[in-house]
Write a structure and sequence with these properties.
The complex is a heterodimer of chains A (258) and B (433). By secondary structure, chain A is an alpha/beta fold. Chain A is 36% helix and 9% strand. Chain B contains 13 helices and 14 strands. In chain B, a hairpin with a 2-residue loop joins strand 2 and strand 3. In chain B, helix 3 runs antiparallel to helix 4 and helix 11 packs antiparallel against helix 12. Classes of the chains: A alpha/beta (258), B alpha+beta (433).
C-alpha cells in the first residue's frame, strides 16, 4: 500500500493548529513515516499539488484565499478542517461583528483600500469538508486520531456529547458553583474539559453539539441568576459566524468518506 | 555568475505565515527589493473594541499560536496597568517561569526545525530524521519539555487558560514544581550534544551594524518585564514607547513598518543578547563563548545562535525560580487579586520570542476596551530585513542564482519572522504622510 499524500495548508489564523501537529512530539516521527507530506509551507520547502488528504487551518478572509481553497477542494479526496477558524470561522468572525468597512477604517485609515479583506467565512462555505477537528486550539491527539483513521480507511470518531460529561468524569467542581459562567452543558466535548479543569468556564470553542439541551442550559443560567444574553457574548468569541443564537443547530457534523 | 536576475520566491517556506520576496538585479546592482507580506489582515484592534477586561488576553493569544503566552502576558500587563491592579509576587514569579518556556519552545522550533535544514542542505527537518536522528530526537525532547512546562503552569501549551488578569485561575502544585525541576535538570545533557553540532555549522560571515532594541532590567535577562532600551544609547519607561517607536503603512505589506532612532532597527534574540549580555547566567555565557557569539554582534545570521544561548539561560533561570517559589511555598490566597473595573490606559511590553511586543489598551469606566493598539516584533524587523538584504546581495552577487536565493531566504529565516502574527498587526495611529 502506498503512503497517502498529505498537504497541510494555512489560511487566516494564528498558525497554532499547524503547531499543534508539530506538538505531537511523541508520535510525530511515526506519523511522518506513515504518510507522505507533500505540502506544509510552515515546515518544509518542497511543495506539490499532488495530494489526497488536505488538512486545512484558518478561515477564508480574502479574495485570493477563495481561489486557493477552491483549488484544494478540487484536488483533495478528503478535506479535514483543523481548528475553530477553519471549522466555524472562529475568533476571526469578530471582525464581521464589528463591520468590515469600519474595521478597515479603524486599522488602516485612508490606506484602507490597499487592503484585500472580505467577510470572514469558514472553509465549508466554499468547499466540501469531510471531517472537523474542532477547538481553539484543536486537541492534537484528536488530529492524530483523525489522520490515523484516514490512513487505515476508518471513519474517525468525533464526540457529539457535551463537555459536562468529560468534566464530571474528571471530577471537577462545577465552575458555576464558583461563580463562573460556562458553556459546558451544550458545547461539544473532545477537549477533555480542559478549561473547567483549569477552573475556567468553557467558551464553546468546539461549537455546540448537534442536539443541545438548550432548556437545561437555560435552567442552569436561571439557577445562577444569568440570562442567555449573559453567555452569548462569550459564545461569540469563537462562534460569531455561526451562532446568531445558541438555539441554531450547528450543522457541522462529521461527514463520510467521499 | 549572474548579471541580471529577477527572482520571486513565493511563498517563503519555513517561516510562520505567508511572505514573498521579490528581487530585481540589473547589471549586478539591486534595482528593486521587496519583502512582500500579502497575508490576510485580521483586525485585532477592531475585535478588541467593547470587550470586557477579562477577554482581551484570550483574544490576544489567538494572534499567534507560536507566541500565545507572550501575547497573553503583554495583554494582561496592559490591562493590569490600565485598571491599577498589582498582582502578587508569586504571580509574577510564575509568569516569568512559564514565559521562559514559550521562549524555549519557540527557539527550539526555529533553531532545529526551521533554520537547521538550510545548514544541512535539505528542504526540511524530515530528511534529517534519517541522517541526523539524534539531533531530531533532542529537538523533540526539548520542545516537549518546554511545552509540558507551559501545560503544567498555563493549563495548555497553546493559548494558555490559567494565565489571566489578576493572577492564575489555578496554581501548579508543589509536586508539579519538583517534577518540572527534574525535567529541566534532565535537559542539560541534550545541550552538550547540540553544542557540538552547532559548532560544525557554517554560519555566513556577514555583518551590518544597526540599532538593537529590547527590554532591559536591572537584575533579570529581561523577557517578561523591563524598560525599553536601545543600543543607540536611550532607555525609556515602557509606558512611553510612542516617544521613540514609530510606525507607518507600506504599500506591499499588510503589516506596518517601524523605526526609532534610525530608519530601521532589529529586535529579537540577538538584540536582547547585545543589550543584556551581562544578565545571562554564567553557563549561558559559556555556551555563547564556545559558539563564537560575543556582544555586540552585528551578524543577523547569529540570531540562531543567540536563540540557543537563550534556551540555556531559560533552563538555568527556571531552576532558580522554582527553588525560590518552593522556598516561599505556594500560597493559594495569592493566586488572584480583586479586580474593580475603571477607566484608564495601560501599556504592556514584553519580549516575545521574536522580540519587543507592545499592547496598548484604553478602557472605559465599565471596564470595556475603547481602543487597542498592538505593535508586534516582526513588524519592527521588516525594515531592517530589507536593509540587511540590500547589504547582503552585493556580497553574494557572483554566486549562482540558486545560491543567491538561498542566502536571501536564509537571512529572512534567521530573523525567525512570524508573519501570521505580524501581518495581522495594525495600529490606530497613522504616521505615514
Amino acid at each position: 500500500m502506498s503512503k497517502p499524500k498529505v498537504g497541510v495548508f494555512g489560511f487566516t489564523g494564528c498558525g497554532g493548529c499547524q503547531l499543534e501537529i508539530l506538538n505531537l512530539e511523541d508520535q510525530l516521527l511515526d506519523l511522518v513515516s506513515a504518510v507522505d507530506i507533500v505540502h506544509f509551507t510552515e515546515a518544509i520547502t518542497e511543495h506539490s499539488d499532488n495530494y489526497e488528504i488536505a488538512l486545512v487551518e484558518g478561515s477564508i478572509s480574502t479574495e485570493h484565499a477563495i481561489e486557493r481553497i477552491k483549488k484544494i477542494g478540487d484536488i483533495a479526496r478528503i478535506v479535514v478542517a483543523i481548528g475553530a477558524c477553519a471549522v466555524s470561522g472562529g475568533l476571526n468572525c469578530l471582525k464581521n461583528l464589528y463591520g468590515l468597512e469600519r474595521a478597515k477604517e479603524l486599522v488602516y485609515g485612508d490606506k484602507k483600500d490597499w487592503i484585500d479583506s472580505i467577510e470572514v467565512k469558514p472553509i465549508d462555505q466554499y468547499i466540501k469538508v469531510d471531517y472537523y477537528a474542532r477547538g481553539c486550539p484543536p486537541n492534537r491527539f484528536e488530529i492524530a486520531d483523525i489522520i490515523k483513521s484516514l490512513i487505515v480507511g476508518k471513519k474517525p470518531e468525533i464526540p457529539n456529547y457535551p463537555v459536562c460529561i468529560e468534566c464530571k468524569r474528571n471530577g471537577n467542581t462545577c465552575v458555576y458553583e464558583l461563580g463562573i459562567t460556562c458553556m459546558g452543558p451544550i458545547s461539544r466535548a473532545g477537549c477533555n474539559s480542559r478549561c473547567p479543569n483549569s477552573v475556567s468556564g468553557c467558551e464553546a470553542c468546539r461549537g455546540v453539539i448537534d442536539d443541545p439541551n438548550v432548556n437545561a442550559q437555560k435552567d442552569l443560567l436561571a439557577k445562577y441568576g444569568l440570562t442567555v444574553e449573559d453567555i452569548m457574548e462569550g459564545f461569540n468569541l469563537y462562534n460569531a459566524c455561526k451562532g446568531k443564537t445558541i438555539e441554531n443547530k450547528n450543522n457541522n457534523n462529521s461527514g463520510g468518506l467521499s | 555568475m549572474v548579471k541580471n536576475l529577477n527572482v520571486e520566491i513565493s511563498p517563503i517556506s519555513r517561516v510562520e505565515g505567508h511572505g514573498d520576496l521579490i528581487i530585481n538585479i540589473k547589471d549586478k546592482k539591486v534595482e528593486q527589493l521587496t519583502f512582500r507580506i500579502p497575508e490576510s489582515p485580521r483586525f485585532f484592534e477592531a475585535m478588541m473594541v467593547g470587550r470586557k477586561y477579562d477577554e482581551p488576553s484570550h483574544i490576544a493569544s489567538r494572534i499567534c499560536g507560536i507566541c500565545s503566552v507572550a501575547h497573553t502576558c503583554a495583554s494582561i500587563k496592559a490591562t493590569e496597568k490600565a485598571l491599577g491592579i498589582t498582582p502578587s509576587p508569586q504571580t509574577i514569579s510564575l509568569r516569568k517561569l512559564v514565559y521562559h518556556h514559550e521562549n524555549v519552545q519557540s527557539n527550539v522550533l526555529h533553531v532545529y526545525f526551521l533554520a537547521a535544514p538550510d545548514f544541512f542542505g535539505v528542504g526540511s527537518v524530515i530528511p534529517l530524521v534519517e541522517t541526523h536522528p539524534d539531533v531530531v530526537n533532542i529537538a523533540l525532547r526539548t520542545k516537549k519539555m518546554a511545552n509540558d512546562m507551559v501545560r503544567i503552569i498555563g493549563g495548555r501549551a497553546i493559548h494558555p487558560i490559567r494565565i489571566v488578569v489578576g493572577g492564575f485561575t489555578k496554581l501548579p502544585t508543589e509536586e508539579e514544581m519538583v517534577k518540572m525541576k527534574e525535567m529541566l535538570q534532565a535537559s542539560y545533557q541534550d545541550f552538550e550534544k547540540t553544542l557540538s553540532v552547532l559548532k560544525t555549522l557554517n554560519i555566513p560571515a556577514f555583518e551590518r551594524e544597526t540599532e538593537y532594541i529590547s527590554i532591559s532590567d536591572a537584575v533579570d535577562y529581561a523577557l517578561y518585564d523591563g524598560s525599553i532600551k536601545s543600543s543607540d544609547g536611550w532607555e525609556i519607561d515602557d509606558q512611553n514607547y510612542l516617544d521613540k517607536i514609530k510606525e507607518k503603512i507600506v504599500r506591499h505589506s499588510t503589516s506596518k513598518h517601524c523605526w526609532a532612532s534610525r530608519d530601521a532597527f532589529m529586535v529579537g534574540a540577538l538584540a536582547r543578547f547585545n543589550n543584556n549580555y551581562d544578565k545571562l547566567t554564567d553557563n549561558a555565557r559559556k555556551y555563547a563563548e564556545e559558539l563564537g557569539l560575543k556582544a555586540p554582534c552585528y551578524n543577523p545570521f547569529m540570531n540562531n545562535i543567540a536563540q540557543f544561548v537563550e534556551i540555556i539561560h531559560s533552563v538555568d533561570d527556571s531552576i532558580r525560580l522554582i527553588d525560590e517559589i518552593l522556598e516561599e511555598g505556594i500560597d493559594k490566597d495569592k493566586a488572584m487579586v480583586d479586580i474593580v473595573p475603571k477607566a484608564g490606559r495601560g501599556v504592556g511590553v514584553v519580549e516575545a520570542p521574536r522580540g519587543l511586543l507592545i499592547h496598548d489598551y484604553t478602557y472605559n469606566d465599565r471596564g470595556r476596551v475603547e481602543k487597542a493598539n498592538m505593535i508586534i516584533p516582526t513588524g519592527m524587523n521588516y525594515a531592517n530585513i530589507e536593509k540587511d538584504m540590500d547589504a547582503l546581495i552585493p556580497t553574494v552577487i557572483d554566486k549562482s542564482e540558486d545560491e543567491i536565493k538561498l542566502s536571501c531566504e536564509m537571512l529572512i529565516r534567521a530573523y525567525d519572522p512570524c508573519i501570521s502574527c505580524s501581518t495581522h498587526f495594525l495600529n490606530v495611529k497613522l504616521i505615514n504622510k
